[in-house]
Amino acid sequence: MTELRCWKSLEKEREEGNTQGESKLHYTPTEDEETLSNGGADDKQQNDDAGDKDEEDAQKEPIKEESSPEASKKQPTSFLLQQVVKLFFGCVAAVACGMLYAVYLSTYHERKFWFSTKQELEREITFQEGSGLYYYYYKHMLTAPSFKRGLYELTLDNKTISGQTVNIVQLLFLYPELATSFIYRITSSHDFIEPIYFYVGTVFGLQAVCVTALFVCSWVMSGTWVAGILAVSWYVINRTDTTKVDHAVPLRDNWALPYFSCQVAALTGFLSNISSATEMFCYLTMSATSVSFLLVWEHSHYVLFIQALCLFFLDSFDLVPSRKVADIHKVYLSSLFLAYLLQFQNPVLLSSPLLSILIGSVLARHFQVAFLLPVHESDFILKFLEVKFKLNTTTDFVTNFLLCQESFQTPKQDLFLRLTQASVLPFYFLVLTVCLLSTLQTIHRRLSGQTMKLDLKLEDGRIGEHPEVIYHVFHTLLFGGLALLMKYLWTPYVCMFTAFGVCSPDLWMTVFKWLKLKSIHPVVLSLILSTAVPTIIGFSLWREYCPRVLAELSELQDFYDSDMVELISWIRSQAPASAVFAGSPLLLGAVKLVSGSAMTSLPLYSDINLLKRAEDTYQVYGMKSAEEIYKILTSQKTNYVIIEEAICNELRINKGCRIKDLLDVANGHVVYDRGVMYSFSKYGRFCQEIKLNYSPYKNYFTRVFWNRSYHVYKVNSVISFQY
């Protein structure tokens, strides 16, 4: 195979102490010894040797000259030195790629948001998509008298959701903030770096780990670190489709996906043909990263379920040693158990489908899901999937609201266009087709009773018999289906998988084996193509995209929301500290960050109860009476309600996903005439009617602040009847 795999095979053979090369160099075995050590495999070799008798005679003298002890030591030593040098430069390249990417992100972030020239308030509101909420708890941990006291306050938090006391660490998966604040405290980092820079720098450092893991994964599979460089290049070029760290630094997936990348890289190495020491290292890395992944993201157990499903297919067709599958299952179970304990006995992890698939068969898995999931949650997930895949329709606001979120929408055509322009998609389909067909051949051979070859060579042309390759075939197919829900889980591995394929001599050799190429030696041609193709791709990417990447770093951007700054300044100076605010969850995340006030809902889409509270708050944009809205807000103990012009008067081509349209459908205020949707109710739209300041609206609400984008109304504790 490639040089890296050759070295791994040689290392394994040397440990066993029975390689054929050593037996020839150190002594001349007897016929019985040859039979015992080499078995029936030597019969085929002897037949080949007999057919090439003249060639052996011609090479007889050189072999005798190298059979001395000095020659036997010289060749392995030089080979070892060569591999160590390649390993060293590969590791340097991997670390360099990660560090350069972190520097690139930091520079781009500074150019986009002007962090160094802004005040603390202006820096904090750059955390978009409600992600500033997570940073608030990082600040809280730093301002607490002690780390222990701060953690206690978060586990019994009554200052976030109005009228409720919750364990906010468990609800929001705040372990990243706990770990970062703890490190900031014990290292006395406040002496030389501001808290916000330490926080953002930590996230960027994890992104460096992510691309380094993708580098290593592609390197292990292909045997050349050129594949790693190509994978990282494609990842950076397609950054808008591989990560959201540009505009929403504190989001959970920005913390979690680097751990998942490390876990996949360790799993890839574990499935490969490696030494026992390296296998143990991969096993420990898998364990640590799996636990970390489960602790920092609420959707992590679903991702690991998809991964476990891939391994289930491998085990079903006996494509990987059962011992390794059992070890991986131990990793999953131990990780789930530890995460369950560290997440304060979070019942979500016990109801995970990952736990179900570990129990046994597909039938047992479906049975377990049906009984482990809470009834309301099980029904909700089923309804969501039915509507997502066009199997049903619903008027439910929460379901339609989630389907309208960018993260859950089907990737648009421009995603595939960008991947095609970067030359990823054409080569991806080529690599996937070859690996998939070779994998199907392997499955057919296994079903026919044939055994898999343990020591594959390049000339065998069987890329689909490598367990790590088979795993990634299933991985990219299943996560490709998951891309209908979240493209950021699929696109990075498209880059990695494609880079591995074009740089792997095994892939080209498999193709030539099918074509039965005879005019040119297929081994030589496969080695040439595995070098020439990535070189040509790399040169074209350098010429086309390097100027664009550098232009991004030199382009001066400015992100400044003056209306938001004005609103936040008013809340800080005029609103009581104990006030409860109602509004859209994304806006409330920013309000919580800068004021610490309690809110009616959170920008968290994995909790059904919070989504229902958000639906109630969103009714201010529906066609409801002033009395109905007043009852909803007072039931949530609201003091102030914030109405956004961008939502109230939203103009969007896809009208079905506007908040007011979703509310009209859920409230039954929609009339269809000749295929056109109209909204109708005896009440006007609340967010528009309240601005006219007439009775009964002014009886229940008093406007206390307004600008072009936001209107803040105080919910009157005593109703005044004015006309």
What's the gist of this structure?
This protein is mostly helical and 723 residues long. It is found in: Membrane.
Descriptors for this entry?
723 residues, mainly alpha, five-stranded mixed β-sheet, two-stranded antiparallel ribbon, 7 strands, 66% helix, 4% strand, elongated
Overview of the molecule:
This protein has about 725 residues and is mainly alpha-helical. Among the domains are: about 205-365 and about 380-555, no CATH class; about 560-715, Rossmann fold. It is about 65% helix and about 5% strand. The chain has a 5-stranded mixed β-sheet. Strands 4-5 form a two-stranded antiparallel ribbon. A hairpin with a 2-residue loop joins strand 4 and strand 5 (about 675-680). The radius of gyration is 31 Å and the shape is elongated. The model is unreliable at about 1-75 and about 360-375 (pLDDT under 50).
